[in-house]
Design a protein that fits this description.
It is built from 10 helices and 4 strands; from the N terminus they run E-H-E-E-E-H-H-H-H-H-H-H-H-H. It has a 4-stranded mixed sheet, with helices on one face. The two termini are 24 Å apart. Bound molecules: glutathione. It comes from Candidatus Litorirhabdus singularis.
Length: 227
């Protein structure tokens, strides 16, 4: 039996849930307190997957593990050149695009409190009281130390616009980012854009690119929770 230890709102946890739904893998989730990730993960980060006692950390490692154990339907292309593209797109989503989600929510004061509320939604009232005042500042500092959060509002927004525009250009003439069909690249990028969409300014940028909106619907139809 597979258990996903998660923070529900984390795009990396969403990525793993979507990969498992696409592959029709039964799983249960265990929501972890923001104070408790160290109990499950040496990096103190979630997601962590437990497959009948085998534990895997990091969404990318988890997707690769799932691909080996549950190869159908595939999320990693067999062709080496396509696999290379899939790998770099996944890493770009996880290590770059993610920080635009953080910057948009926590370097933009008008979004910070609401997003902090999302992060704390499953916490006990005393944890909310303890951490509530600190979460926006901690996340803002995380975005600043990576770099994206130190840019001006205008630059953050125009970077996001350029990135979404690049995805639109990659999708021209094809349903998914790789010609081989839905892959880990689509899921990894989808979850970050879906998080960016939570902020009004992010949603406005995404709405400028109907090709991306249609692609998001396609990815969600294959990986989202059944209606
Ligand atoms: N590279 C990791 C990133 C995971 C990650 O950054 N998770 C965040 C939640 S979005 C986390 O656990 N943060 C807790 C912390 O940094 O203390 C992956 O792909 O799983």
């Amino acid at each position: 039996m597979i258990t996903l230890y998660q923070f529900e709102v984390s795009p990396f946890c969403d990525k793993v849930r979507r990969a498992m739904r696409y592959k029709n893998i039964p799983f249960s989730v265990q929501e972890v307190s923001l104070l408790g990730a160290g109990k499950y993960s040496s990096a103190k980060k979630l997601p962590v997957l437990d497959d009948t006692g085998t534990r895997i950390e990091d969404s990318t490692q988890i997707v690769h593990y799932l691909e080996q154990k549950y190869p159908e339907p595939p999320l990693l292309p067999a062709d080496p050149a396509q696999l290379a593209l899939c790998n770099v797109l996944e890493d770009w989503a996880d290590e770059s695009l993610y920080y635009y989600d953080i910057a948009l929510h926590f370097s933009f004061a008008e979004n910070a409190k609401r997003r902090a509320g999302h992060l704390l939604q499953h916490e006990k009232p005393w944890v909310k009281r303890l951490m509530g005042p600190f979460v926006p500042g901690l996340l803002r500092k995380m975005g600043e130390s990576q770099g994206a959060g130190r840019r001006s509002r205008e630059v953050i927004l125009s970077d996001i616009d350029r990135h979404i525009g690049s995805i639109a250009a990659m999708l021209e003439g094809q349903d998914f980012l790789l010609p081989t069909g839905l892959s880990a690249a689509d899921i990894s990028i989808f979850v970050e854009i879906d998080a960016i969409k939570v902020a009004e300014l992010g949603a406005e940028i995404i709405s400028r690119y109907p090709v991306v909106v249609a692609w998001m619907d396609r990815v969600d139809a294959l990986t989202g929770e059944p209606q």
